[in-house]
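User: Can you fold this complex?
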Amino acid sequence: MVVGGGISGIQAALDLANTGFKVYLVEKAPAIGGKMAQLDKTFPTNDCSMCIESPKFLECSRHPNIELLTRTEVDSVKGQAGDFKVTLTKKPRYIIEDKCTGCTTCAQYCPVKVPDPYNQDLSLNKAIHIYFSQAVPLVSYIDPEACLYLQGEQCNICMGVCEHKAIDFDQEEEKLEVEVGAIVLSPGYEIFDPKLRGDYGYGKIQNVITSLDFERLLSATGPHEGEIRRPSDGKHPHKIAWIHCVGSRQVRVGGNSYCSAVCCTYTQKQVILAKDHNAEIQATIFHNDIRSYGKDFERFYQRAANLPGVRFVRSYVSIGKEIPESKNVTIRYSTTDEGVKEEEFDLVVLSVGLNPPADARDLATKFGIELESHGFCKTNPLNAIESSRSGIFVSGAFQGPRDIPESVMTASGADALCSQLLAYRRGKLNRERIYPPEKDVSAEEPRVGVFVCRCGANIGRVVDVPSVVQYACSLKNIVHAEESTFACAADTAQKIADTIREKGLNRVVIAACTPRTHEPLFRDTLREAGINPYYFDMANIREHCSWVHSREKEDATQKAKDIVRMSAARVSRLEALQEFELPVDKRALVVGGGLAGMTSALSLAEQGFEVYLVEKDKDLGGMARRIHYTLEGMDVQAYLSELIGKVYRHPSIHVSTDSTITEASGFVGNFITKVKSDGWVREIRHGITIIATGAEEYKPTEYLYGQDDRVLTQLELEERIAKREERVIGSNGMVMIQCVGCRQEDRNYCSRVCCDQAIKNALKLKQINPRMDIYIIFRDMRTYGFKEDYYREAASKDVRFIRYEPDDKPTVEAVEEDGKPILRVTASDPILGQKLVIDTDSVALAAAVIPSATSHEVSKLFKIPLNPDGFFQEAHVKLRPVDSAADGVFLCGIAHYPKHISETISQAYGAAGRAATILTKDSVVASGAICEVNESACVSCGGCISVCTYDAIEFHETPRGKKARVNPILCKGDGLCNSRCPTGAISLKHFTDEEIFSQIDAAFPAPEETPLIDKAGMTAAGVN
Amino acid sequence: MAAGYKFKPKIIGFLCNWCCYAGADLAGVSRYQYPANIRIIRLMCSGRVDLEFILRAFSNGLDGVFMGGCWPGDCHYITEGNYGALSMMHLCKKLLQHIGVNPERLRLDWVSASQGTRFAAVMNDFSGKLEELGPLGKGEGLDKNGLKLKLEAVTNLIPYIKLVERERLRVRFDTEEEYSKFFASDEVNRLFHELIVDKLATSQILLLLRERPLSAGEISEILGVDASTISTHLNNSARQGLIEFDESQKRFVPV
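Assistant: Here's the predicted assembly.
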């Protein structure tokens, strides 16, 4: 059971279902999607949030192993790991889910307007409505508080207009009990509510809004259709201020001591998007440290900061006043040169932090788990996916403030851990659909059936459906046409299947809504009727016709006929395609024997798979061998030696150290890799690959490193502290300098781990030798999340923090003072505005984490790209954070990007979880809509090969010279190669030239076919 | 055109499944209205749009062709077909301009899946623009048969144009400006003239001669190109063995 249907819960449910488990996905809202569904774009790529999330909704709703339970909450959990009994309450929707088709007619007629929670109450919706337009399930719900009928008044308009009789006012709460083996908690987070304390006038001053409010304003589906309008007067604001750390990094009552980890970067995203909406906007960002610690965040920050009219001001602020006439808001802030200033803004956005879920305490009681001191879930310090109760796992922001990729990778990790626990029961409840055998109709003449959907009134009110049906009958190859009120209703689908069989149809056109949501459903109908699902086309006469031409009924009807004609022409030319299956080799290869590699290997082995673990060094352990303790106080070496022991002892793990990979070939399910060790090369066959090749520490050339042995890197310092080296722990002073070798032009990224490494070592030194003078000279302290508490602790223990600017770096000199050799560090203090001279015994440098020297080679061998900084690039920054661009190759650990030990472990479990979704299957299925080469037309120009970055096409020798050939497993079916082929030799099936030409030719009535072309093409002007 | 009638351009749109088609769907969901004169063809990626699709549409007498893809950097595929579409669009515009078709009849725009408003706005704008331009050919002052011949000549040359694109014009920039700059550069103009323009003239001449034997003067008149340029092309084609001069008719004929 997965509790919480945000992006993390969705991912966990999909991975578990794909690993062969039956999943209950429980969500208390009317639709799945969580907070991500409310975001406009996602950082740092500014991908449209809904576009990338909504395909996952559909995947959940169609998955035979997932049962969606919306508007449902957990009451109690009994039993133990492997055998839980969960009772649930399903709140009434007042809609019969199976009958509602999501046509929204009810919402159009409902007379009651209520604030729309999806739009942060910034706009109105109806008492009956669909949560948001892409919602899954696409079913209305009634807000019982607002509904007139349910409040005892006279109204049942919706009942009257609903043609499906889907409205049921008598629905009551329903109790359910289910038995599950494991539970994944992914309830997400709440945003910090600034209204409670009235932070910055929020709730009183109209033009002070939260960042989530602003997110809805930015969104095209938001309250003003993507126009930024401020609440007081609906005007477009020109001067906007953002205030950072609202509710975060504070020890006052009602605030959160921790850093919310995502606000710096989402603010930058909002600034960029606001400037995109209106380049004239003046944006001012009042901030503390800028915490751009994630992959590509640093560049994103620069992108925002470099926009014209954007000011980043480092200052605490307070609200001055609301100006009564203009409703503008003034902000007081301090500057280094001019003292305190007060400035007027049109709109103020509060970058609010992340709170634990509002019902966290309640959840803790129900699930019998503990919370940590901030109210989030208490997790195993080294494995953040484990809660305090065995068999209950945690993913996403309930672990603590997290961004989307981390929420996704911990979800996949939760899959791995559930699968370890329940491996013996995997597949027992797996459901697959069984279809009748497919009829071969390829030799038959096309016999097309056209079904025109009225979609209630959605199409029928605008388009003259009977005339479209009549017209369809007149077209070539059409042997049957009929209309239906709702083609997608379950009983209609059955009738269509019956008609296909009775009339001997071999091709089908459904003229209804968009294929993006409904094509899979109707393809399924064809399969039920024994017809190849590719003999199908959807004529989109709703989204692309009746809804967008609702005032021009005649034109819309003509267009609907044209669209049907295009579909009929296309469908007559379509071919039957086979999705083919290839067997999966159930073994795994893990490259890299550090913490990440070992964790994934062990997890896969525990899930019942055979694993080859290849390490280039003579020992396992990687970078972790040099780390002795974590900021949270865990003993890393003890953990590491235990892990190494488990890996060596596990009968399913074959370890080869001192080994290198010489060759890699194959594709998902069937890889062949050659490994060289002890002078001989052996071949490994495996179904998936995990790349965990780690990273290295930069060897500084700055600050006398290498010239003076009192200058160390943080890792070297840690080793010496661990050895209790007297020269280090007994000394009087230590200066730490941050950002050495990164956050600069040639390495334009943040190494993420150094700030807390410095804090960790500083605290350790203070613990051993409280009198030691410790300075940390930094640019931005990036102790994100709960690590902020340790930053505060260090400051309270007199560790002194001095900020420097990149163009005014500190200097280190070796000098003698009173005959004693010392290191003299000189830095500018921006607060005091003067030079500080610190004489100290040693200097520790936060040396950058740099990509492993082998990464280029690994990248070439496994055909996985590197990002501009040399770390491995994931398939999608947000939603596929452990997948690589090559199917079946996964990434984890610091080879992907610098990260902390607990994050590395989470990601390693994530990779193991994703890998398991392939290894548990007996075969991989490749789409039928892929390219193929007509060899007699191929002129061997290589045009297709050069554009296919999937490496799906290669030359092979034939008696007539080399010819291009497509590897169907690697082809993704985008068809770029087709448009580059000079001779049309390569063609994308289901989108062939002939098929598309037929659509182009049928797009408008040919003059001879319709002599009235001039009349159809022209309308009387000036008549009106 | 008869007075009192408003011209409604016929438009075809090739939309990628992931962004622009989804944006068009959202325009529908949000009920944003736009003219009913566009017909949409769904492709998986804007990179699939072939030069021939566009020429086919114009040959069929359509007044405008729209290509809609994902914003740069948002392509669903690592092949980044939207950049491929961008290059192809630039090349196609040069060809259209060369044969006298207003290149603004071809339009490429990025529309994300959340930009329903933008899709409707682009459709309204493009349709309005095409209304100003008038019907294909008429708007340009080209006669129907001449235009058909020219489009056919370009279509026949597509295999060659694709080879030229691959060998000489294949570029990959990050920004749209760089593409615009590149395709407007002297270097590209020179290549276009050297490698494509002559071939195109030859292709047109061959098409004409396949209909009936013609003299240099007649060809010059039909194509509206000066006689000396035509005779250069004729000599080249004769040398390549594509055509010959028929003494009896005093006209050129195809071989």
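The longest strand of chain B covers residues 11-16. The mean pLDDT of chain B is 91.
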